[in-house]
Amino acid sequence: MGCGHKDDKASLASSQIASFSHQPHQAPSTPASKEVWKKGGRMFSILLAVHLALLACTLVSSGAFEKIAVHDYDVFFLLTVMMLIVIVWIIFYLAGTSRCPDAILCKDSHAGPVWLRGGLILFALFSLVMDVFKIGYYSSFYSCLSAIKIIYPIVQAIFVGVQTYFLWISAKDCVHVHLNVTRCGLMLTLTTNLAVWMSAVTDESVHKAHSKLKKNVTEEIFRWLLKVGMRSTSAEACNCNSQTCQIFKNGYFWLYPFNIEYSLFASAMVYVMWKNVGRFIDHHSHHIHHLKFRLFRRTFFVGIVLGLIILVSGLGVLILYEVQVNSSTESSKKSQALTMYYIFNIVCLGLMSLVCVGGSVIYRFDKRDMDRHKNPTRTLDVALLMGAALGQYAISYYSIVAIVASTPRDAISALNLTYALLMIAQHTFQNIFIIEGLHRQPPKEDHKHDSHQKDLYGLTFVNINAVSLRVPDSDSTLAPSTTPGTEVIHPSDLGRPLATPKKMNWRRKLLREISMFLLLSNIILWIMPAFGARPQFDNDTELNFYGDSMWPAIVDICLPFGIFYRMHAVASLLEVYIVS
């Protein structure tokens, strides 16, 4: 399928690799890419992605306002077209590009680790269930809806399935044919995922705003508000009175967080693939570590047990919060729920901050080499951690300003201020711990020591009596006839190699405990805001200070980044756990 032009370049590259393999005495080097202008191909694909992203962002944001003549089915039409194009390109890649001779000369061992792909599959399954619920919901009153409302979830389900399969088998590819087409296809895929993410975040925010308004007004007033200016979906005008329709409606809105995380996970993996297009990897310097994930070995179980306690307690707090705040109109129950929420988060964030500081201190004693090799996956992980944390930083600083400048101050305001300060501290300390852990080399095997220790370590298992023939007594002195330059072996040296691994084990175990505790804690801190526990909307301090329009807009923009930060921190901490 048109592989000939690029095959010549690929064959030249492969011949260079072969020539290097016949020169064992020369320093290994990476063959230079034969692409004429690598940055030019990247720049063109970036420009394509920027224009499509701006177009999608314009439509999605315009559809959020009733006075602008852009409807949700216009957004769904654009997203449907983009997903269909991506599906066609993925089929072309799998059937054509990847099967060309010398198309994939090497693979990036750091890209697409199995736990990241496993998380992608988990989110993909929930996204498919969400699409099924959407199809059932819109099919309940298809006569008063545009056809695109039913076509969109069908195409999205196909898109999720095809893309998940594509990322599972191709995430590590370093493609060397159809370079510009592949770059543009990957950037189109990335932009489509981001556009779907923006649309899902907007729909979820509008749904929560409608739900909050419905609790305070009657059905007639609510429909009047929709007509005079509040944004509504085309499905709001249709009646959804049956029990089945309500189940479908509530079901797919509850599954929105999984679809949001799926889009972001897929975008990150696609970006790494885009960086690896045309890349050669020097396997002499690109270390490949075959690490085994052993959850219940070499641990004290303290981190797992404490993390599970935090996780279960957080689920209980979430259930009580949902019942008392979102399902009740009594101010006393709302105040109790907010107090309970803030106390739990203050305890959790305080423990996480202390644990992160302790982990950074342990790093100072663990004399392990730093990995300074080029790694696009790690670079992206660090950028996402730092960038996504800005969302929670923004919310926290806005809250601090509102609390300090507002009067009067009550107990909830004090708890809110403590919560905001600890949120900033915890994000900072956790980023330091994770980023340093990602840059550290995996521990060497216990039998890997210097040459002198290797000999001693092996001799202890051969025959201890034989060693005594070479080792003089501690009381005696070295005979004058000893050959100059011969190294004397003392009995005390025999225990050094055996004691060295034991000294290192306690550090590794503590780092594993810390990583597992932080992992479980981040899971509950992701679940709580993703499934409705959002005190930013229920606390009146910020709302009264910034106004009914500014504060919800700030939270709607920044909170999705904070939610994504937690899920990405879970994936990064799992990698730190395995490397420790």
TrEMBL record:
- Database matches in Pfam families: Otopetrin
Bilayer topology annotation: Multi-pass membrane protein
Compartment(s): Cell membrane
Q: MF terms per GO, please?
A: proton channel activity
Keyword annotations: Cell membrane, Hydrogen ion transport, Ion channel, Ion transport, Membrane, Transmembrane, Transmembrane helix, Transport
Q: Which residues cross the membrane?
A: 43-63, 75-94, 114-138, 150-169, 253-274, 295-321, 341-363, 383-405, 510-529, 549-565
InterPro entries, per the entry: Otopetrin (IPR004878)
| Example of a GO cellular component annotation carried by this entry | plasma membrane
Q: Which PANTHER family match?
A: PROTON CHANNEL OTOP (PTHR21522), PROTON CHANNEL OTOP2 (PTHR21522:SF35)
* Similarity field: Belongs to the otopetrin family.
Q: What is this protein called?
A: OTOP2 protein
Organism, by scientific name, is: Steatornis caripensis (Oilbird)
